[in-house]
Amino acid sequence: MITWESLSSDSRQHGDQINYQVCPECMDAKWHFYINTGTGGYKCFKCEAAGYLPVEGTFNRPKPREAVWEEISLPPNGPPGAWARSYLLQRGIGRTTFEQLGLREWTGQGRILIPYTNSEGAVIYWQARDFTGRQEPRYLGAPDVRRPLFIAPGDGRIVLVEGVFDAVRVNQVGPTAVAMGGKTLAEHMVKPLEHVVRAGSQVYVCLDGDALKNALELQCFVQAQLGIDTIMACPDFGEDPGSMPLEKLEGLFS
């Protein structure tokens, strides 16, 4: 029988979700056991053990406030110049795509500005990607603003990826692509992600080919935290969705 006392292995917490290394039911030690501290709901994605534990008085940690994004301005900018367009074409992004995404060139900085917009089209965040190959860091972000999810709207399929250019590439073969800005989901992104994935017909996890462990953890987290089944869509080792041939990439979601 699973009790709070039996959950004694190493653990790691993401918001209301605690991931335990060892399942007290099947003793699998590969981090397949999750429990939600708000509801007490638990599940092992190895042996399928599932149920609820009492939570009254167990956790008094305050709920994190939902992030609120206000409209911000982009740095001085203009349409992408010849070098910027050449870089975008190397990434498989032609004129139609970069105009749809509103990509701009940061004046005099050798960087492409990638605006993040809300449902009303207002800019709430931006990233700036070096296209010269000579600047570090490669990406800069809007200062003093939490990074939101980057969403490239498409069909009913939802694909979770790492970066903006991964999202752009995936979107070119049809699905709605959601970039987390890394290999893990930040706590303030959970609620916005829930709104997106609940509107989808199918959810895929598609991180870089060398991030299988992170992809499995993300898959378990989405299934346990949001109660939504996901499909693993893994590129081969050494590949990433942002640079895959479109035909091969499309095959991951069919």
Explain what this protein looks like in three dimensions.
This protein is α+β, with helices and mostly antiparallel strands. It folds into three domains: 49 residues, no CATH class; 65 residues, Alpha-Beta Complex (DNA primase DNAg catalytic core, N-terminal domain), CATH 3.90.980.10; 102 residues, Dna Topoisomerase Vi A Subunit, Chain: A, domain 2 (3-Layer(aba) Sandwich). It is built from six helices and 15 strands. The strands form three sheets. Strands 1-2-3-4-5 form a five-stranded antiparallel sheet, covered by helices on one side. It starts with 10 loop residues before the first strand and ends with a helix. About 2% of the residues have low confidence.
Q: TL;DR of this structure?
A:
With about 250 residues, the chain is an alpha+beta fold. It is built from six helices and 15 strands.
Can you lay out the helices and strands and say which pair or pack?
Blueprint: E1 11-14, E2 17-20, E3 33-36, E4 41-44, E5 50-52, E6 77-78, H1 82-90, H2 95-101, E7 104-106, E8 111-117, E9 123-130, E10 139-141, E11 150-152, E12 155-161, H3 164-171, E13 175-179, H4 190-197, E14 202-205, H5 212-226, E15 230-232, H6 246-251
Parallel strand pairs: 12-13, 12-14, 14-15
Antiparallel strand pairs: 1-2, 2-3, 3-4, 4-5, 6-7, 7-8, 8-9, 9-10, 11-13
